[in-house]
Amino acid sequence: MLMMDEIQEPQVLQLKTLRREQVVHRPLKHVFPFFERPENLALITPPSLDFRLMTTTPVRMEQGCIIDYTVRLLGVPVRWRSLIADYSPPHSFVDVQLKGPYAYWHHLHRFESMATGTRIVDRVQYALPAYLPQHLREKVHQWYVGPALRDIFDYRRDVVKRFFARSETMLTGPGCPNSRLPPTHFAEER
Q: Which of 7, 50, 53, 84 is most exposed by smallest CB count within 10 Å?
């Protein structure tokens, strides 16, 4: 028989938010096509995560699109499935995790045209798995997840800055209209 003092309260997810913003000196018409292609995720993900797109390419980006990939976390391959929950080209899209390491993952990608180029805004709301006790979730976030996510987005910022700082002729590269360069062109420079 279950006693009242044995009933545990349901775990409440503690949402965390990571927000990053950067401006690239290229027009929105060149920037959005790069980011809307899941094939380019490997280019802007640190090599240590060994990002691998599992979905057959080319991926047609649209609302409802499912994207499967794997990453290595602490050396262990982890499957991740994302849903494009909102797709509003060329201004934004949202991916949410359907399966993966987080209890909750909602990533808004927003692009704003400016006189000097394009503002890229990433807002990620996430929560660690509720099966971890709250005090342990906080420690894991403080010592591993928080710093790791900041490092991933720092890497992304640096790669994006270098990529879009290239000459206008290089903007025919991966993810850009009329691409004639192989998808690995920029990846080889890592």
A: 7
What would the two tokens of residue 189 be? 């420079």
Spatial distance between the Cα atoms of 24 and 28, rounded to a whole number of angstroms: 9
- Residue 151, pLDDT > 50, answer yes
CATH number of 74's domain: 3.30.530.20
Distances, alpha carbon 168 to alpha carbons 30, 129, 157, in Å: 10, 44, 19
pLDDT confidence of residue 14: 87
Burial 89-115 (b: 16+ CB within 10 A, else e): ebeebbbbbeebbbbbbbbbbebeeee
43 assigned to some structural domain = yes
For tokens 């390419």, name the residue: 57
Q: Report how far apart, in Å, the C-alpha atoms of 169 and of each of 74, 156, 164, 179 are.
A: 38, 22, 11, 10
pLDDT of 190 higher than 60: no
